[in-house]
Amino acid sequence: MVQANLVHLRRVRERTLALLENLSAEQLDYVPEPGEWSVSEVADHLILSERLLQKDISILIDRAKAGQEPYLYRSFAEFNARPACFPEAMLPFLEPVLNVVTLFVPAAMREYIVRNVPFRALAPDASLPQKGKAKDVLCDELRTNLQATEDLFAANSSVDYDKMRHQHPLFGIQTVPQLLRTLWLHEQAHQDQLSSIMASPRFP
């Protein structure tokens, strides 16, 4: 399952790079509406999101190799991704409820939400993008990030990724293959966002 998801991730990444390939600096930094992200900001968010995932998978790998339970819990305090309708002040109260609710939400439904984003969602603070990054920097980081993800799994091919568990109040409990699937589904959702920005009548 890991290798199949890495293949999907590489194909999705190739499309992201293709979307950026011929854009000018003006096009990269165009903001369709106040408060929305530009193309460059969406790309930087993808870079930061993958790095966060790499970090958490590395922790799970280290715990498995050390003979510890390969389980990692990320609270809203650490990763405050959420629907916009959830006020941040309410997250500590919603967290225990959501931890129970997500146990009964099928993985397919969670993946549908990640891929199609049927409601306005807010990115976690840890993956909020930097404005104005140059195209060559963004493309290089997208490529090196993918290589780092592939290298991480190549260097740890003997561990059982299906036995690792990652939990978040909003995303529930996921194995490492499921985390990888969430990563490329998330990128596909943002590709739709990029296409929408570029289709704007005011896009330079």
Q: In words, what does this structure look like?
A:
- It is a single chain.
- The protein has one domain.
- The protein has seven helices and five strands, in the order H-H-H-E-E-H-H-E-H-E-E-H.
- The chain has helices at 2-21, 25-28, 39-65, 91-101, 107-116, 135-154, 176-198, and strands at 71-73, 82-83, 121-122, 165-168, 172-174.
- Strand 4 (165-168) and strand 5 form a beta hairpin.
Write the layout of secondary structure elements.
Elements lengths: L1 H20 L3 H4 L10 H27 L5 E3 L8 E2 L7 H11 L5 H10 L4 E2 L12 H20 L10 E4 L3 E3 L1 H23 L6
Parallel strand pairs: 1-4
Antiparallel strand pairs: 2-3, 4-5
Helix pairs in contact: 1-6, 1-7, 3-6, 3-7, 5-7
Question: Biggest β-sheet, characterized?
Answer: 3 strands, mixed
> From the alpha-carbon coordinates, what is the Rg to the nearest angstrom?
17 Å
State the strand order across the main sheet: 1-4-5
Q: Would you report the number of β strands?
A: 5
Molecular shape: globular
Question: In whole angstroms, how far apart are the ends?
Answer: 41 Å
Round the mean pLDDT to the nearest integer and report it: 96
In what range is the share of β-strand residues?
Answer: 5-15%
Q: Would you tell me the structural class of the helices and strands?
A: mainly alpha
User: What is the string of helix and strand elements?
Assistant: HHHEEHHEHEEH
- The overall number of domains is 1
In the predicted model, the low-confidence regions spanning at least 5 consecutive residues are: none
Q: What's the tally of helices? A: 7
How is the quaternary structure best described? single chain
Helix content: 55-70%
